[in-house]
Design goal:
This protein is an alpha/beta fold. It has eight helices and 15 strands. The strands form four sheets. Strands 1, 2, 3, 4, 5 and 8 form a six-stranded mixed sheet that branches. It starts with 20 loop residues before the first strand and ends in a 5-residue tail after the last helix. Belongs to the ROK (NagC/XylR) family.
Amino acid sequence: MTDTSVPESSDPDGSTPSTNLGFGVDVGGSGIKGGIVDLDSGELVGERFKVLTPQPATPDAVADGVAEVVAHFDWTGPVGITLPGVVTDGIMRTAANIDKAWIGTDVYELFSKHLDGRQVSVLNDADAAGMAEDAYGAGKDVAGVVMLLTFGTGIGSAILIDGTLVPNTELGHLQVGKKEAEHQASSRVREEKGWSYEKWTEKVSEVLETYEALFWPKLFIAGGGISRKSDKWIPLLTNKTPVVPAVLLNTAGIVGAAMAVSRGLKT
């Protein structure tokens, strides 16, 4: 099915279309979405296209879905792909919201087989979003360490140093006090416990203060669905480092994936 929630963005002013294009696919637990990206602006060219993530979300079934998204655009070039898990040396090490059969899968062999041997880059979904936000969004022109944190079912993380990604940080699993960070400060915890924003941001501030002590970032970028309500909770935070909401939102994974393959990034 086509996802029309992202408006057309190609050349509204009649200017010459960019030739610096890439393609990204963002694999999630519920949907596989992709599109053509203008790498000069970080914007999608036209609308994105989305298919439902197959259930069970096995490697071959998901790779078929990725191929369907790519074929929808008649795209024949390199493809960047995000996955909800850790990828090191081309091997999937963890799997969140997709089938556990992914663990141990050679992702480059898998996607090469399903995409006719073309060049691919595969990376963690939070890392892709962090790359996009750092280059085109809330982190643009910020020097030093920038951290993206996605507050959702867990806490996803991405660290960039002057635009260079430190992959697979998984800081949501860092123990803060007696619990992992995401077990006390994710958006899901707030919803399950019925906490007010005031109560929840006490926990978020504690987590951010721990990250500050370890990494001394210049900026935190808050992503995830709750970032759309940033005016209700970001002003309540008490940590020292500035916190700003993500800008690209539901296009960040696609844009970051396209960036990754354009740079020849492999994790």
